[in-house]
Amino acid sequence: DVAARGLDIEGISHVINYHPPKDHKDYVHRVGRTARAGKKGTAITLVTSMKEKKLLDRIANITCSDIEHVNEEKPKRAYHGIVSYRF
Fold it and tell me: Which of 22, 29, 46, 69 could be 4's S-S partner, Cβ–Cβ 3.0 to 4.6 Å?
């Protein structure tokens, strides 16, 4: 999270979070790497527990983000990494 602040690296189209951030401010700093200069990006956050899911749902609510949950009923989509936020 510390490295996400203040970095301006061009051409980042995807951010993968291997665990949800602790709060919405850290989330915005992490995924904000993708949406620079009017460009769109995708953030993928891996969630492995109900506690993490609730935290991510709360962050999505605070940041007015759309969220798509991928579960065991959609293994092909999960395999191809299509769980995302669009900015």
Answer: 29
